[in-house]
Amino acid sequence: MSVCGPGLIRCAGPFVTLCCYFDAAFQALARRRGARPHAYPGMVSRQLLERFEYFSSFPGVATSAGDGYVLPPAVCYHTYEFLAGRELEAHPYRVTAVGRCSRFEGERLTGSPECLWSFTMRELVFFGSDQEVARERKALMRSIAGLLRTAGMTGTLAPATDPFFLGESRGKLLLQKLKELKHELRAPIRAGADLAIASFNHHEDFFTRRMNIRLANGVPANSGCAAFGIERWSYAFVCQNGLEIDCWPDPVRRFVERHEAG
Fold first, then answer.
1. How many domains does the chain have?
2. Whole-number pLDDT of residue 242
3. Could you tell me the residue range of the domain that residue 61 belongs to?
4. Is the pTM of the predicted complex or chain greater than 0.85?
5. Phi and psi angles of residue 179, each rounded to the nearest 5 degrees, phi first
6. Less Cβ around it within 10 Å: N or C end of the chain?
């Protein structure tokens, strides 16, 4: 692994294969949940993010790509644009996609995968009634506990808020916390320190109302997502299991050895 700028790293060898292992595990989870695979471009329109009030809620985080586009700060924004104006024939309606995301977080950017400017995110995005979205999120949180055990990792799920909400967004922070609309999975990485490696979010109808995404009865759908930072998962795994591949849990070791040999 080498650092090529603030929050920018190059990776090779077993770390890359670890990233493949975790994304394969998330894809398998998405298939079991019946998610439809999507693929999106590496840019998103500034106009779309303005529609979602992104720049007022997350000031200074987006990275411009020129000509009215920015590098996507999350994968799910494309999902909402893809489904705009649709009436969902079945729900819960589930989608999964992976992509490169960019968030400029200033002094938080480091030379390690703890906080990256450019990173890989796998998301599962789901739509339904308020109760259906709540159940789906709960099921995903249960499932991820099993994935942690298989990988020989530990972590803690807890209610959370988005750390870069500022100023006038503090009211949103309080509401988010009171309603437990966001949970994070935090994994220990060293004594006294842990790292958020996944988030499980219930967006209510914030995005769907703006994009006119409806249920079969015509009312705006609720939506939620589970987001997994691939490099962070791999980094947390190494922090907990060490660098010796022979000492890694069997499922991970076999995957890495098989792909490294190939």
1. 1
2. 96
3. 2-261
4. yes
5. -90, 0
6. C
